[in-house]
Amino acid sequence: MSARGLDAIALAVLHHRLAAIADEMGVVLGRSSFSPNIKERHDFSCAIFDPRGRMVAHAAHVPVHLGSTPLSVRAALSAFRLAAGDVVALNDPYAGGTHLPDVTLVAPAHDARGRLLGFVADRAHHADIGGMSPGSMPLAREIYQEGFRMPPVRLVRRGMVDRDVLALFLANTRVPEERRGDLDAQRAALATGGRRVRELAAAIGPAHLQRGMAALQRYTARLIATTLRALPHGCYTAVDVLDDDGLDTRDVAIRVAITIRDGRALVDFTGSAPQVQGSLNANYAITLSAVFYVFTALAVEPIPANEGLLERIRVVAPSGTVVNAEFPAAVAGGNVETSQRIVDVLLRALAKAAPRRIPAASAGSMNNVAVGGFDPLRGRAFSYYETVAGGAGGGPSGRGASAVQTHMTNTLNTPIEALETYYPLRVERYAIRRRSGGAGRHPGGDGVVRELRFLADADLTLLTERRRRGPWGLAGGATGSAGRNLLAHRGRWRVLPGKVNLRVRRGDVLRVETPGGGGFGPRPRRSRRSPR
Amino acid sequence: MFVHKVLSTPDDPARAVLAGLAALFSNGPAGRITYGSTVATNALLQRRGARVSLVATAGFEDVVEIGRQARPELYTLEPRRPAALVARADRIPVRERVEFDGRISVALTTRELRALVRRVRARRPEAIAVALLHAYATPRHERAIGAALRVLGVPISLSHVLVREPREYERTSTTVINAYVAPLMTRHLTRLAAVKRGGTRLLVMQSNGGAVAPRRAAAEPMRTVLSGPAGGVVGAVGIARRAGVRRVLTLDMGGTSTDVALVDGDVPRRSEWELDGMAVRLPVVDIHTVGAGGGSLARVDAGGVLRVGPESAGADPGPACYGRGTRATVTDANLVLGRLDPASFLGGRMRLDVRRAHDAVAEVARRLGVDVDTAAEGIVRVANAAMARALRVISVERGHDPRRFALLAFGGAAGVHACELAAELGMREVLVPRHPGLLSAFGMATAPIARDRVVTVRAIDPEPAALARRLETLAAGVRAELRADGVGDGHLLASGFARIRYVGQSHEIEIPLTPDYRRRFDAAHARLYGHASPTRPVEVLGLRVTVSERDVVSRPRRPARRRAAPPPHALEDVVWHRRRVRVARYARDLLPPGTVLRGPALLLEYSSTILVAPGWRAVVDAESNLRLTR
């Protein structure tokens, strides 16, 4: 089946149908879940796969899941031969996962005659998965400390939940009731997806569906090829660094060489720093996601997200490095922080190939805040996690947006009025961090200032980046302001490290100031130097 | 029905309305005039509203700009967000704080209040929005600020009055939008109030499908922003009821987009939506919009696949067949396929250029490597796929089986697509009302006077009786307001709803408030999401009451006697599944009630064209609706 002729029309129609199914799965998951991470912040994705386990449609709210979802289905399929009614659960970053809080469920879709039509999967960030600190984003040295690790296991066998597996899982998390509700929601989304795939196959015929799934992947490969052909041939290199690994204070370098040739790209991370002691290690899935994100965003057309992305882009990430960590390295921060830096370094390299398309660096950190402990007001344990937006980089087409999630994340905030109702926390300030964007012809967007007062003693973990050096400007634009974390104890403020775990007291106030975006182009001469 | 059209007067929209009414009054006075307009909507979209000062709890002035901190498009290197309606310098902090449980932790002092008035006055605002944290729980500070700022003599919008619910961004955004359009709407509606003559009563259409007195509309103009499409759905409900059909999916296909809604006996409503990237939290008719319409452009993308929309040829240049554009649209494809009549478009006032349409579609065909008819049918199929997706979103995704619904098609372009869309969704009946282009106006003219009010509750597993008591208090307040507007109690009907979720969830489902609300909630949760937990405690977040006039349900007319169709006025070819089929053409207005005809047939009328597809049968019913079945 080619993209020419009638099939080009049938393909457009099928794309609508499959994308709609993935969207619908997302609606079911988001609305019926219990974690604030899932229901309020939309930290989840849903996807559909062909019978060989290749992704054909993906409804993502967070790009970091883009390249990693296919790997989780692959892991599930290599572990089991799945029967109708089975559901596999996994979160092991070394077997198809990303970081431990992201729990993925995979189920096959069979038709009434037992023929395999494909697979459906969903991945959601659970608010807590055990481990050494509430929120399960600790400053760990090895994965065992980060939480409960699940290789692919059959959570459901032929429609019956395996109570042993479920009990084992729930016993290792801090808020088991919430986990159970979230897993129910994830299963409901899979059931919906499976049902719709069956209906679609019945409507258009299973053979047509299979051919269409294959054609969709080829279509995406063609769109990527067109995008790559629009870039000049050559090899483009860049380097950028992480502030530190959370345990010492040394730069962690990420290097890339992107070779563009004949509608293909080779993205080679050879030369990047060895894996680190702390949790800033990315596994291969994360690195793949960052690469896919950049090329998808660079594309000339909206690209259907599917396995076709893999056809034209080869990613080389030597194992044992910070971009492809080996077991048992800790990885919680790789997903949220290193992924952003991988995007920065890719954009820095591509700016040399397409200077009129690439913006200056954005905030470059998800500014992760995790708080947990016992809430004496409500008489229960609590675990709260949020990410704080920053400034987008100024770009060729205009100034950077302020207070916005950039690149690998797009999670919503938790409304203050909801947060204060459910947690022993009080927000004291939530404001634009004025003049934090880098100056330039098109200035970077401003970051955010957010202050949280603790109404109970609690355990606090910060996982933040761009605290030592701000996001870089481009084409003569200035660097954006670096972020800062501060804590007030009895009215006295002190600066906290970018990555820290500590015990806070009732009445303490945390202030997170997130980085502004880098500026683009030289600042016009008449304007004053913008104050910092 | 009497139709009179006048040209709009954008500099002063009221002038055109007054001119139109003068012409209507020459036929004698009217009992009731319901006015619907896009004045507020356009002011918002074109950023031509008032200079607004926003008063917010100190430390939270930027909530209106930060929003939910997400970008609208996921895969973009340079994210853009629409500019906030209030400039940073016009956001005025005030020292005060209310906690989530309604307790005041930082009291608003008279000194702070005096300073605030000075600061706001210095900004010379044309309107003021006040949105304080947790004001839904304790509105005392908002009220005090509202009272103190009255000396400035500009419209003041208080967040707790508009949205009595938590979520600071959504409430603030709604309040700011209200303030932004308030001065304009007040002026506009004051001008219109001049039309009152004799016993004529002027009402203003709201986005929730009800009508209110002009002074209420002027105070809360936000509630009128979606009144146009709401009128269409209200009209559809009226048509369906009179036709004896309970469940319909409405399909309003226009030039650039298509609106769809699900009607299960009543006008569907929801309480949150977005306008140009800004959150709005007020009850509106639940309409889903998709960027596919008659003017949607077709193109072949870099991967060789046909795309239709969301880019549109708009009014200028318009579809190629209008004579100025060169790129193919859905309308051009329909014309090439013989599904539109070039000579009778808009009653023959505009002749469509078949040659141009053919050339435009031929370009798409060349790039696809197929013949022109195949390309044209492809354009229609892809547009239909987008519309079918929208219809699935409002039905299948919400636990309704579209096969149990009829498709009610209106708006200029829907009649040509309705049969194919219905077949795609397994639906067996299509209903096309008389004057399909005027359904929105018809809906407004018949919209009941209605107001709704929402209150926050936050109770876990509350007793139904306690909820009923709170609802009655709420309803009494609304009744009093309507009485003040001159609507007698005897004609009013209150209906109550509760917004419920399982403890720990954050999205509520709205359920009619009955003694067995709990059972209904579990059932609705299972229908929507496929699972329910009848033993898990539930939390009631809020109550909504809608008080409206009782419907005057007119009895359906007796069915007309069946009669055969008159001879068609022409026979022309239509392309159907890549074959040319001889199709009879009729002028719809010449088909009397009772007429039965078999597809394929093309029915032409002033504002639309209806394709009775092969395999479908059409009957003109006693109300002159066209009912198509297969």
Give the mean pLDDT of chain A. 93
Which structural class do the helices and strands of chain B define? alpha/beta
Low-confidence stretches of chain B: none
Structural class of chain A: alpha+beta
Explain the overall architecture.
The complex is a heterodimer of chains A (532) and B (630). Helices cover 29% and strands 25% of the residues of chain A. Chain A has 532 residues and is an alpha+beta fold. In chain A, helix 1 (6-32) crosses helix 6 (206-229), helix 5 crosses helix 6 (206-229) and helix 7 (284-298) runs parallel beside helix 9 (332-353). Chain A starts with 5 loop residues before the first helix and ends in a 19-residue tail after the last strand. Chain B has 630 residues and is an alpha/beta fold. Among the domains of chain B are: 45-186, Rossmann fold, CATH 3.40.50; 451-549, Dna Ligase, domain 1, CATH 3.30.1490; 563-629, no CATH class. In chain B, strands 16-11-10-19-20-32-31-28-25 form a 9-stranded mixed sheet, sandwiched between helices. In chain B, strands 3-2-6-7 form a 4-stranded parallel sheet, sandwiched between helices. In chain B, helix 2 (39-45) crosses helix 7 (168-193) and helix 10 (330-336) packs across helix 11. The longest helix of chain B has 26 residues, at 168-193. The two termini of chain B are 30 Å apart. At the A-B interface, helix 1, helix 5, helix 6, helix 7 and helix 10 of A face helix 3, helix 7, strand 18, helix 12 and helix 16 of B.
